[in-house]
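Late entry, evening session. Most of the bench is empty. Finally got around to the prediction I had been postponing all week. Sequence below, unchanged from the version circulated by S.P.
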Amino acid sequence: MRIGSWPTGDTLEQTITGFQQLEADGFSHGWLPHIFGHDAMTTIALAGAQTTTLEMGTFVVPTYPRHPTVMAQQALSVAAATGNRFVLGIGLSHQIVIEGMLGLDFSKPVRHMREYLEVLGPLLAGEAVAYTGAEFQVNAQLTVTDAEPPPIVVAALGPQMLRVTGRLADGTATWLAGAKYLESTVVPLMWEGATAGGRAQPRIIAGLPVVVTSDADGARQWVAENFEGYGDLPSYRRVLDGSGADGPADVAVVGSEEEVERELRRLQEIGVTDFDAAIGGPDDETKERTRAFLAAMNAELATTG
């Protein structure tokens, strides 16, 4: 299992510096959310010129506002800019965003993602696409000669989405899925889909808040306060319920170095291939302690497995 994290910073320059710091610290990858700030793929393309080894990915870009041809063309451009160190993470977003803010139809999310992937994958591979579906009608081909097709990971959380993702993508990127849900639902359904699609081992990227601390109660309170809104979104609510959790604090990886290591190794045994650490804590000292431990843990896992 490889460990990565999110770059810190609010400005474009700070985020690029954050990617550089992740690489200098020895993390395997850096993941960048795409919400309402800078465009994540543009930012990663710029960071590609300032890094050399770090894998960088979006966690995740919503599909509805971007036609799959546009997504593929931009993703290949980012792959070229990063020396093929880019992972394209995509997702549906949420009904409140897609319908409430953007005014787009969110009534058939699984069908939307299935058709999206059936168009996106071949386009990334440079194939000519002639596709007629309920959501997309595409006749197109892209020629980007200096890029390899980036891996596609999908923010798949429910059973139907996991099966589609396993069959048509390279992996899934989960957020706030605890060990129970990962073991009972995410990993087996991803493998089921991959087997049905004749695909290789899927990447299972688990994103969770992490705090290395001697004050576990205080850390969980910090997580509860800083991530409380996620429990109100239906997709995350289902994942939290499936994890046996009341809220984000219940799935956060919190405790001493020994306790955090034990939980990370448990995730690895379940089948998680990549861990995306949302490093947190009530103060800078705690965050630095967490960051240093996770970087060391990543180095150990890279040599021992």
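Two things to note before I forget:
The longest strand covers residues 203-212.
The longest helix spans residues 284-304.
Will write this up properly tomorrow.
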